[in-house]
Please model this.
Amino acid sequence: MIKQPLHIIFVAIVEDDEVQRNTLRWLIESSTEFSCSGAYASCEEALAGIRESLPDVVLMDIDLQGKSGIQGVRELKAEFPDLHIIMQTVYSDDEKIFESLRAGAVGYLLKKASTEKMLQAIREAYEGGAPMTGEVARKVMQFFQQPKQSKMEALLSERETEVLQELIRGHSYLAIAERLFISVNTVRFHVKNIYDKLHVKSRPEAIAKAIKERMV
Model:
């Protein structure tokens, strides 16, 4: 007997390539864990459709015709702050990665990522994670490992900086605790301090704030 998931994760797709859009829809619908709430060829279509269906997660192509995916993220997050948006693109362009995260995206995947990685990313985003393919995650981490000290680094303790880096990598509280050899409650304590010091309320906001401070 096949075990059904406790909650179906509804996913919206924003992709202007028809073949890619239909492929993504088929992959999502083929899983018992996910359901496609809508597939749109442009941000304009998506904004109208998402208002009606309000999915859990959005897969957003970054290079759309007309209004860009980054602008689409800004508008969606302004209207639906709790919406989880994962950006998808062919190239791991540094500036677009950071622009996407600053706009409010929770993750960034290359289109060459496997089906398993994509579905895992949707699941992680729904659960509050920040999924990124390895190549993208390395670029983000390299950005934070530059020797220049930022206002953020001066504000956070060494341990808080370590915890923030693990949050950026998309790890859960349990995984962070195991990697840093501390308790989950200690992780929660550090995360609360990070949010308080950066004046943010969520992981995506913390990542975006950290990136902004680094670029000042």
